[in-house]
Specification:
heterodimer; A: 162 residues; mainly alpha; Four Helix Bundle (Hemerythrin (Met), subunit A); B: mainly alpha; 15 helices
């Protein structure tokens, strides 16, 4: 019961924050609304017993990515004007409505399998075993790591060329 | 007398199960109260201690008029600040400006949910305890940003930008040293980490880790010599230039609150938390917290403020590689001796630490008084 109330509260906050990101004129406030949305998503993870995921969500998305985002806003010139509307207002509205419809259709139509296994209490060890063991997802993890490293080196090279 | 208090403290979690009369979570209520009282009390004591010890080290007297030894000076300051005029700049982004102090202050208090005061005497013994502490601690940066941006003051914005540079850089070594502790104990719960230090504290088996965590921690919470983001002589006071009255008090409280949190986490991870003979556990914890804060005051009085390029170089060229090597070495040791490290790893790790610090201080230079501008 309390869990259901919590879920609906968090879902409401998430959706409201997501709408605020798009609608607000002030870019800085949009970024703050995005932070609120990300925190609410972390809350939803907690209601699903995924505590490590929630911690990682806050640490990575709120603590690092959104801060870089805000730093980018601060370094942008003429950011005071906000995000003015342009002539693509109606087409983009149509596209987003169609996309929303497709998403709703997919979510409602797909047969969600409900696992009968109870969720394990300390998820951290299980997550680590799944990610890093030989018969788990070690190869994709390594590939993602190499990709990120290449991206970082590329960013440094691009920033250095003047 | 002490044993009575100790027993009450240890038995609290067992005695206060959720199904007490009225189905109230008494355990939560009581430990939340303990955490808040402990937090506010130690913030006031920290302010008093900082001013008095700083004064002693600078051959001054310091505040000594209000109350015995000037103990009530912080309270007098608080009353003074509360009666001040509440100013909001006319160009400010009002909502963000008003929200910022709360967002700086609230996460600091939230960290105390996972700090154990005795074995099991903790508000919520999360099994992701240390990750929770780091994650929640990183939230207050957003508040600093909000303050710096919404003031529409160039000094505030500059202070906030310096803040992000410091926090993003120093988060790396701090998380890596904490990861070393997690590798050693195999658990992220702060209570388990303290229990694992029953034989010897991790400051002995991880001297380099303690050093790195202390330096990076000082930078993370803007303590001098890393307090560039509020350097009075350069950018007036950084992000809280425009704040006055109660809102400024919140920032001041948040700043010392972060010092309390960092001292507490370092005391818990490296100095054995509530472990210790004779005295009750919470006295040990408080004593260790104040010892770590004393070290912070000591560095503050000793070292001059660093420049922004020196700050960045220290993080990325000194602390970060050392933290990585420390994590790697500890991982190797734990893999070799999975059933706990033998005692002779204390001198070995101490040697590794000294050699690495000496080596790296040779390899890296902070550029004496010269800034390279392309």
């Amino acid at each position: 019961m309390a869990l259901t109330i919590g879920f609906y509260l968090l879902a409401f906050v998430t959706i409201g924050a997501g709408l605020a990101v798009v609608i607000l004129k002030d870019v800085f406030r949009s970024a703050l609304a995005l932070v609120l949305g990300l925190v609410a998503v972390a809350g939803i993870y907690i209601t699903l017993n995924a505590d490590f995921l929630a911690g990682a969500q806050i640490l990575v998305y709120v603590g690092a990515i959104s801060i870089l985002l805000i730093l980018g806003i601060m370094l942008t010139r003429e950011v005071q004007q906000g995000s003015p509307a342009n002539k693509y207002k109606i087409p983009s509205f149509l596209v987003s409505i169609v996309f929303f419809g497709i998403m709703c259709f997919v979510i409602l139509q797909s047969p969600w399998k409900e696992s009968t296994v109870l969720s394990t209490e300390p998820t951290t060890a299980k997550l680590a075993t799944t990610l890093f063991s030989g018969n788990g997802y070690i190869l994709p993890v390594e590939i993602a790591g190499v990709l990120l490293l290449a991206a970082i080196i590329g960013a440094i090279v691009m920033a250095k060329e003047k | 007398m002490f044993t009575g208090i100790e027993n009450a403290f240890v038995n609290l979690p067992q005695a206060l199960k959720a199904d007490w009369p009225g189905n109230v979570w008494w355990h939560w209520v009581i430990f939340t109260l303990i955490a808040i009282v402990f937090f506010l009390g130690s913030v006031i004591m920290f302010i008093f201690m900082e001013r008095r010890v700083l004064a002693k080290m600078q051959a001054r007297i310091g505040p000594n008029r209000i109350g015995p030894f000037g103990l009530l000076q912080a309270i007098a300051d608080a009353v003074k600040v509360l009666t001040k005029e509440n100013i909001t700049p006319s160009n400010a982004d009002k909502i963000v400006f008003w929200l910022a102090p709360a967002i700086v202050f609230a996460p600091v208090l939230m960290v105390f949910a996972v700090v154990p005061f005795a074995n099991g005497a903790v508000l919520a013994d999360l099994n992701i305890g240390i990750l929770y502490a780091i994650a929640i601690g990183s939230l207050s940066t957003i508040g600093v940003f909000m303050a710096g941006w919404s003031s529409s003051n160039k000094y505030s914005t500059l202070g906030a930008m310096r803040m992000v540079a410091a926090v993003i850089s120093y988060e790396m070594p701090i998380v890596l040293t904490f990861a070393t502790i997690i590798v050693l104990t195999g658990s992220m719960s702060l209570n388990d980490i303290v229990i694992a230090q029953g034989k010897y504290w991790f400051i002995f088996s991880q001297p380099l880790g303690f050093f790195l965590a202390f330096v990076a921690g000082c930078a993370e919470i803007n303590r001098s010599p890393f307090d560039l983001m509020e350097a009075d002589s350069e950018i007036v006071a950084g992000f809280h230039t425009e704040y006055s009255g109660m809102k400024f008090a919140m920032f001041y409280l948040g700043e010392y609150g972060e010092a309390v949190v960092m001292s507490t986490i370092i005391a818990t991870l490296f100095l054995g938390g509530w472990q210790g003979p004779f005295l009750p556990p919470f006295v040990w914890l408080i004593g260790k917290i104040f010892f770590v804060f004393f070290l912070m005051i000591w560095t503050r009085t000793t070292l001059p403020r660093v420049r922004i390029d020196q700050l960045m170089k220290l993080a990325w060229k000194f602390l970060f590689p050392l933290a990585l090597i420390n994590l790697f070495a500890t991982g190797l040791e734990v893999l070799t001796f999975p059933n706990g490290l033998p005692w002779y790893f204390i001198p070995v790790n101490f040697g590794i630490g000294v050699v690495l610090v000496l080596l790296w201080s040779r390899l890296y230079k902070v550029g004496w008084g010269r800034i390279e501008i392309q």
